[in-house]
């Protein structure tokens, strides 16, 4: 039956609705006598029946825990228990008496913040119990039937049946494989996220990798959430503030960040800025849900974001709206840069009596070129009298030499008598920006009208406190992540919008902020043992079985980098001198808390060339998960873990946009044969002691490091306490304190304001110059022509010339677009009702995620398909069928849909350079149409499971999902081992001031690879795709846009003059 | 049929039952600030997990958030009724022979897509232009969407109550909550048909109808409903809509503020900032919305005012469209007093009966006169001094 909204309206008008009534739906027809009620508006005789609802509401007890997926927020929730089962959840209010929950008499008392933080916890937390009981749960340990320790037969991954094994068997198989490794580095632990599940969950895997001598890496790096522009500019991981700082802003620019969908619990802080007089401007290619909250929307061409920021900078420079004093004090803008070498001029080069840096300046060991230590020589500026003056790394902020000139273009005489042309950093940026990024040119690049850009720039410059958000959407674009981010910092520096509550530049892309728990290394790196780091992007680019051209994978578009074939893992292309990472192939890869293969970009390549390739170096793939995910289906050993509601051992978590330290613990008994990651690791460690003779171990006993899990009198809370004691942020917090609810971390400020000390206490930034650096002197940036601020067209996602500056790109055509017909951007933003793929199968979340196509009954055809698809490979590991509640869809503009004769609900095939998929269409006016001037935009929300997509009957390659067309490109710009930055933990500015028993005592500046800080990440969203009609839907919920009634309704004229039968009744 | 004065319409209208002579001292009411709503549907999940997770209730969302203009649960519920009603005609006045209320039965399929149109917007893509709003300049988004949380309005002229042939639906004397007697109902579905907001729902498993209960077990304990306490957008404030400026101290406690409730201020003061949803239906709904200030007022006039040419009620402005525009301006730039009240949204799970707003402090008291909120409007900034504390992390 074809049903749609229009038909309902018409059917009802024609009085034919009864034909639609199903039998169970029919009303009772008989009428029986009733006791008369006089006037139910005034009173009602017998209200005893109301107990019905009191009984539904009633519960036996309340217990609480914390929901902390990779949304980064961590929310404490009360679970209402009846007969030992959680029946519903409710957020716990801070400072609240009288409601049930932790502490006494209720609410959490110690967090030390105001009630403005109430309440926290979104609809996902409220269905944690439904997720716990849903059919995709893994119920016991499983081993793939085709897998043998001696012969892994990877071709069968994802297809073979599983068989149930005991925990003993599973543990033994893992430990045996580990014990037989010739090189311990080939044991790899992979987590999605860092700063949660720290001690008794996947953090235990990192501890195991450390004492075993293995590797560890994270999805955060590899998945391209890293915002490298932050590190390039400030040397700091990411400058995110507590959400409560957002409200203080007078002006907010939201660029490509859909905060409405992906920061739910603390979103209100942003919405409240406008009530307090703040203005909000959005820069998005589509009418993102966040746009509705913006006073102004600037529609931007995807991939051109950096040009917008450069245009804003143009207006600020051209109209002299900047704050020279701030620029002098806190940035590299007054420092001189040599025109010949592109390096910052050093004081010893011009002043004869000025000592060069201790480590020398030349060659391999020269500190000036290779990070390490903190002495790169001193820098040079021009003072008010026009004289050269040395500026040391410590002479920042108020100690900056007075009145240095910002705009200098001159020649200087060096100490050896020669002369060299120099310009200040500001003169360089100014010349380039004034030359290339006037608002009219920027309009050509971005499609944003020049006058609107000017207006926005002037308003933003005039605002007292301005904040700017970007996020994952832009980080995943090959060039934007670097050039846009650096330019935003440039603007914020010109306006003094750094280091102040309500001003700043934020990203919030990921649960990476383990820095907030700075005692954590005491647990994961015990006794100085530390797992090897990994360049995550390389793993999937190079660890395949097949010979691929690494130039293609790496994004080495000019093919001028000296690459080593990927088969040679010992000597891959690596920055020289770096030793903190490894390229060891993961012979054993163990993922915890992560749906690696579902979220991987270039999915087809990863499955075919890494997971299933006969020559893959990966001999054992272990997946620990709650659910039979796409990744788990491809594993050799599947280990079931409990949901947060079922955890025996407590664990702690922190997040990047709130000041809380949370500790969770389960509220119910596990319903399946599950174990927490920590316990699993402990059992493996114990087994390793049996299998590896002491002289071959890296530590005396592996078991010793997990004794609290294994000893009868063990208490894992001791590990938590040790980690708390080893950090500044938690030094006075006891485990007992957080058993009663969250506590506030002990930080410099509340709310946390990035760079508060730099701006207010004259501390250096974590760069060579001690300042926010805009010109970069590292060789790799110079080689690539990216040492200054510029916009580059995407390597793929553009109709113009690829991978070039506008001047060159504008007159070129991207052949992929013009000749091959790939005319759509492919946009995969983060979803609202899921976190990545988590909650992907939870009934209510799936219904709502599926929008027009989500229902308790859903598509009758689709229902069968979903059930079939979800039916797990038969065998002992069979799971139940999933509830058929909805399916994936792609959003497409009505014009573009009509162009290929597609209506709402029809199916299309999306094809890219790397793969294709079939998916249902949701016609959506907010998407960018091709008529906007360049390409159309297709949006598929990220995190669907493969079984939410139909099969492609004509092209069944068995690989389905939203990531088959996306790509893995490594940016050579990020392959530097000399980029100076802060490590994750600690603060070199004061590392000797803190007590010796702090985990990061003595921390120094670092250079090169650092997990979650600096790495070639290698996954991008610059994809172009084509779209064609696949099949007409035989069922669809309708397209209201075509209805006259609906258009009258939207005009507001339905009742007054647009009604079809108004007034005749 | 008895006549009753409807202040939302500013005129008399018919209603099948006589009203009480005096208003209740306490009546359930709610204000929702749509400008803060982020459509997370946490309210919907909170409600469903509390009240409708049983058999036959799978499709029921007593609380749902719709994206206007394309959302609708059940599909197209409001446009169908608007189409059926003449101007200035309530659903009671438009009732057909043998019925008390004009309505229609939404069929099973119409109920089954609660997320239909979720997050969708309306309008032409602004090629070469921008989209901008400033209600003070009467400028609104040419392309728009907004989120409309929908729930039972616990109306003062409830249509469900009027429609029920068994008198199984009643309005509680103590708090005005409208309940459907689960023991007396026989599933005739007249309430399902009659409620213009489509919140009574039929359970095909039990054969009887159900309707939202206003979270009365929580109200009885002095707590706000689940959809309010769960709202992470802090969009809602619940309380006693009938407590006006002349009311005394709650619980007779003189240290508590006297006078009106915070929601009464937002709805009934000279600074009115919240409007009822489809007052033209004539049911006197008691959920009031701070309208979205970026949306064209023509649409909002249809949705949040009596929508007739002659303005008869006491709202600001000389036409209803003007009322909307004024309220949009107030919502965009609230006065300090309103800003203070907005801090009470989501501050506590306790019912706030009275309040006061000072320069940087807002307080609230419950029905017994106990202080339940005492918070700053602006959080202080804290800085930890000492050499070892730097900005890290």
TrEMBL record, chain A:
Residues 60-136 form the 4Fe-4S Mo/W bis-MGD-type domain. Residues 352-372 are annotated as: Disordered. Keywords: Iron, Iron-sulfur, Metal-binding, Oxidoreductase, Signal. The keyword Iron-sulfur applies. GO terms for molecular function: iron-sulfur cluster binding; metal ion binding; molybdopterin cofactor binding; oxidoreductase activity. Pfam families: Molybdopterin, Molydop_binding. It comes from the Archaea. Belongs to the prokaryotic molybdopterin-containing oxidoreductase family. This is Molybdopterin-dependent oxidoreductase.
From TrEMBL, chain B:
One of its GO terms (biological process) is anaerobic respiration. GO terms for cellular component: membrane. Residues 28-57, 144-174, 176-205 form the 4Fe-4S ferredoxin-type domain. The lineage of its organism: Archaea, Methanobacteriati, Methanobacteriota, Stenosarchaea group, Halobacteria. It is found in: Cell envelope. InterPro entries: 4Fe4S_Fe-S-bd (IPR017896). Its cofactor is [4Fe-4S] cluster; [3Fe-4S] cluster. One of its GO terms (molecular function) is metal ion binding. This is Selenate reductase. Keywords: 4Fe-4S, Electron transport, Iron, Iron-sulfur, Metal-binding, Repeat, Transport. It comes from Halobaculum saliterrae.
């Amino acid at each position: 039956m074809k049903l749609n909204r229009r038909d309902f309206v018409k059917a009802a008008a024609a009085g034919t609705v009864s034909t639609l009534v199903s039998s169970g739906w029919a009303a009772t027809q008989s009428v029986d006598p009733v006791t008369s009620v006089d006037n139910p508006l005034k009173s009602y005789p017998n209200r005893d029946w109301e107990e019905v609802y009191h009984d539904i509401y009633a519960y036996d007890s309340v217990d609480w825990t914390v929901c902390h997926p990779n949304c980064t927020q961590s929310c404490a929730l009360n679970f209402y228990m009846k007969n030992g089962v959680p029946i519903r959840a409710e957020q716990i209010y801070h400072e609240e008496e009288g409601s049930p929950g932790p502490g006494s008499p209720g609410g959490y008392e110690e967090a030390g913040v105001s009630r403005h933080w109430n309440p926290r916890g979104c609809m996902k937390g409220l269905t944690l119990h439904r997720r716990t009981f849903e059919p995709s749960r893994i119920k016991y340990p499983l081993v793939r039937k085709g897998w043998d320790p001696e012969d892994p037969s990877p071709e069968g991954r994802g297809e073979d049946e599983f068989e149930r094994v005991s925990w003993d068997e599973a543990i033994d198989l893992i430990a045996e494989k580990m014990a037989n490794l010739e090189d311990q580095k080939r044991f790899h632990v992979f987590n999605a996220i860092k700063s949660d599940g720290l001690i008794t969950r996947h953090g235990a895997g990192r501890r195991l990798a450390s004492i075993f001598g293995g590797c560890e890496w994270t999805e955060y790096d590899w998945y391209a959430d890293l915002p490298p522009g932050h590190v390039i500019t400030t040397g700091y991981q990411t400058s995110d503030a507590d959400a409560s700082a957002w409200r203080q802003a007078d002006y907010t620019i939201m660029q490509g960040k859909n905060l409405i969908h992906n920061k739910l619990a603390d979103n209100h802080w942003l919405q409240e800025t406008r009530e307090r007089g703040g203005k909000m401007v959005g820069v998005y290619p589509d009418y993102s849900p966040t746009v509705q909250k913006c006073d102004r929307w600037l529609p931007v061409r995807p991939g051109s974001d950096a040009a917008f920021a450069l245009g804003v900078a143009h207006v600020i420079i051209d109209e002299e709206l900047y704050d020279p004093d701030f620029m002098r004090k806190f940035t590299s803008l007054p420092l001189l840069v040599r025109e010949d070498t592109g390096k910052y001029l050093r004081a010893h080069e011009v002043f004869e009596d000025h000592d060069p840096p201790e480590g020398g300046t030349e060659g391999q060991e020269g500190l000036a070129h290779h990070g390490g230590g903190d002495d790169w020589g001193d820098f040079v500026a021009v003072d008010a009298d026009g004289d050269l003056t040395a500026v040391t790394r410590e002479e920042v902020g108020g100690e900056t030499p007075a009145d240095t000139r910002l705009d200098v273009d001159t020649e200087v005489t060096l100490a050896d008598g020669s002369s060299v042309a120099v310009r200040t950093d500001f003169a360089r940026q100014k010349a380039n920006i004034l030359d290339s990024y006037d608002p009219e040119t920027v309009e050509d690049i971005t499609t944003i009208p020049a006058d609107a850009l000017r207006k926005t720039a002037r308003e933003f410059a005039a605002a007292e406190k301005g904040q700017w958000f970007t996020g994952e959407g832009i980080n995943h674009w090959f060039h934007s992540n670097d050039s846009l981010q650096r330019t935003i910092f440039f603007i914020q520096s010109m306006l003094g919008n750094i280091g102040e509550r309500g001003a700043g530049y934020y990203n919030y892309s990921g649960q990476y902020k383990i820095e907030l728990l700075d005692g954590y290394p005491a647990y994961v790196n015990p006794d100085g043992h530390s797992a090897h780091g990994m360049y995550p992007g390389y793993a999937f680019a190079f660890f395949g079985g097949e010979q691929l051209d690494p130039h293609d994978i790496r994004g080495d578009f000019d093919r001028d980098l000296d690459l080593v074939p990927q088969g040679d893992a010992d000597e891959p292309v690596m920055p020289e001198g770096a030793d903190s990472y490894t390229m060891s192939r993961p012979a054993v890869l163990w993922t915890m808390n992560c749906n690696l293969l579902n979220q991987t970009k270039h999915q087809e390549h990863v499955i075919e060339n890494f997971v299933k390739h006969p020559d893959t170096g990966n001999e054992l793939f272990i997946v620990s998960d709650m659910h039979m995910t796409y990744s788990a289906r491809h594993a050799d050993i599947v280990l079931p873990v409990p949901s947060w509601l079922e955890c025996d051992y407590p664990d702690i978590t922190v997040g990047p946009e709130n000041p809380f330290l949370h500790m969770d613990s389960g509220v119910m008994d596990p319903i399946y044969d599950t174990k927490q990651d920590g316990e699993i690791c402990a059992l493996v460690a114990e087994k390793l002691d049996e299998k590896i003779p002491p002289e071959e171990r890296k530590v005396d006993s592996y078991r010793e490091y997990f004794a609290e899990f294994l000893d009868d009198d063990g208490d894992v809370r001791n590990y938590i306490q040790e980690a708390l004691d080893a950090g500044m942020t938690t030094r006075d917090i006891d485990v007992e304190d957080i058993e009663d609810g969250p506590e506030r971390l002990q930080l410099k400020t509340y709310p946390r304001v990035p760079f508060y000390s730099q701006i207010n206490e004259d501390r250096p930034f974590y760069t060579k110059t001690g300042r926010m650096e805009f010109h970069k002197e590292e060789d790799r940036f110079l080689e690539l022509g990216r040492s200054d601020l510029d916009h580059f067209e995407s390597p793929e996602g553009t109709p113009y010339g690829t991978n070039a500056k506008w001047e060159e790109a504008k007159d070129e055509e991207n052949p992929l677009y013009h000749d091959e017909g790939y005319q759509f951007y492919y946009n995969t933003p983060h979803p609202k009702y899921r976190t990545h793929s988590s909650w992907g199968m939870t009934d209510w979340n799936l219904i709502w995620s599926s929008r027009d196509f989500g229902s308790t009954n859903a598509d009758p055809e689709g229902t069968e398909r979903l059930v079939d698809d979800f039916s797990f490979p038969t065998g002992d590991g069979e799971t139940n069928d999933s509830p058929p509640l909805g399916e994936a869809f792609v959003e497409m503009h009505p014009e573009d849909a009509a162009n290929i004769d597609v209506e709402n609900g029809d199916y299309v095939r999306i094809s890219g350079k790397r793969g294709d998929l079939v998916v249902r269409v949701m016609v959506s006016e907010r998407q960018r149409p091709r008529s906007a001037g360049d390409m159309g935009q297709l949006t598929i929300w990220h995190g669907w499971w493969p079984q939410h997509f139909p099969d492609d009957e004509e092209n069944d390659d068995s690989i389905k999902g939203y990531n088959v067309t996306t790509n893995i490109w490594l940016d050579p710009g990020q392959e530097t081992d000399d980029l100076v930055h802060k490590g994750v933990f600690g603060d070199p500015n004061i590392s000797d001031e803190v007590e010796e028993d702090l985990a990061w005592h003595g921390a120094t500046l670092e250079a090169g690879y650092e997990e979650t800080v600096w790495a070639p990440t290698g996954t991008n969203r610059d994809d172009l795709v084509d779209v064609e009609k696949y099949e007409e839907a035989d069922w669809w919920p309708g397209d209201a846009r075509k209805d006259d009634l609906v258009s009258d309704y939207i005009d507001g004229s339905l009742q007054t003059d647009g009604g079809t039968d108004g007034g005749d009744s | 049929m008895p006549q009753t004065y409807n202040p939302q319409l500013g005129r008399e209208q018919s209603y099948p039952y006589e009203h009480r002579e005096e208003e209740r001292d306490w009546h359930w009411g709610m204000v929702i600030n749509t400008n803060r709503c982020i459509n997370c549907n946490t309210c919907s999940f909170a409600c469903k997990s509390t009240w409708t997770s049983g058999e036959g209730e799978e499709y029921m969302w007593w609380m749902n958030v719709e994206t206007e203009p394309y959302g609708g649960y059940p599909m197209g519920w409001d446009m169908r009724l608007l189409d059926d009603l003449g101007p200035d005609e309530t659903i009671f006045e438009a009732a057909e022979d043998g019925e008390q209320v004009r309505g229609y039965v939404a069929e099973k399929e119409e109920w089954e897509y609660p997320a239909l149109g979720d997050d969708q917007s309306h309008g032409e893509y602004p090629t070469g232009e921008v989209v901008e709003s400033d209600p003070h300049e009467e400028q609104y988004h040419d392309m728009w969407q907004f989120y409309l949380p929908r729930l039972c309005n616990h109306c003062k002229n409830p249509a469900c109550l009027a429609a029920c042939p068994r008198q199984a639906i009643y309005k509680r004397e103590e708090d005005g909550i409208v309940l459907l007697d689960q023991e007396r109902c026989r599933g005739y579905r007249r309430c399902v048909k009659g409620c213009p907001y489509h919140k009574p729902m039929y359970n095909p498993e039990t054969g009887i109808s159900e309707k939202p209960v206003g979270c009365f077990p929580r109200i009885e304990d002095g707590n706000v409903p689940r959809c309010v306490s769960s709202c992470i957008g802090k969009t809602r404030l619940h309380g006693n809509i009938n407590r006006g400026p002349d009311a005394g101290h709650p619980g007779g406690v003189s240290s508590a503020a006297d006078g009106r409730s915070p929601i009464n201020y937002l709805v009934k003061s000279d600074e009115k900032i919240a409007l009822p949803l489809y007052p033209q239906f004539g049911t006197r709904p008691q959920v009031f919305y701070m309208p979205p200030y970026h949306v064209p007022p023509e649409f909002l006039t249809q949705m949040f005012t009596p929508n007739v040419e002659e303005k008869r009620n006491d709202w600001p402005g000389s036409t209803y469209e003007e009322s909307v525009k004024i309220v949009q301006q107030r919502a965009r730039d609230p006065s300090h007093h309103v800003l203070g009240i907005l801090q009470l949204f989501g501050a506590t799970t306790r019912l706030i009966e009275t309040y006061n707003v000072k320069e940087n402090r807002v307080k609230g008291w419950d029905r017994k006169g106990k202080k339940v909120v005492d918070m700053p409007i602006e959080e202080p900034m804290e800085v930890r001094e000492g050499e070892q504390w730097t900005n890290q992390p």
